[in-house]
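Chapter review: from sequence to fold.
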Amino acid sequence: GMGKRRFPAICMTQHAARVFCQWLSAKTGRYYRLPSEAEWEYACRAGTQTAYHFGDEPDRLGDFAWYYDNSDEKYHKVGGKKPNPWGLFDMHGNVYEWCADKYEKNYYQDSPINDPQGPKLGEALRVIRGGGWNGIARLCRSADRYYDVPTRTYNDYGFRVALTPPP
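The token string follows.
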């Protein structure tokens, strides 16, 4: 059921996620892509400034996320937990999500304040955000960052698409 019947697409490399975005763009005539790291975090926070979109303490994480404490060591259907204030599901937990950006340790220090686009792509580590079904609560925070090589895949790696509006 991966990627079907409301299950997240898993075992995805970053390359496979980008190819899917290209296919979806060609099929629909609209431009789909992986979100930048900044876009992903903005969507996750949904107008909040706390560690999680529901507050600073992880005591309510189980209401919003599949993670180590409640996942039974597997991914779950999208929408099985409460959404964030903007109606987005599984921003904390379930599967890690590839972003378009190359990983840079000092990303936020070295990027512009408004709408940072992230470092230029190259053969390097890529950003993964959101935490997975096997992550502890701290790894599911809005600002938590992880990285991996873009060709690696695990059963908790997936992606989310961003739609660029027409000019």
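Two observations follow directly from the output. The mean pLDDT is 90. The two ends are 36 Å apart (CA to CA).
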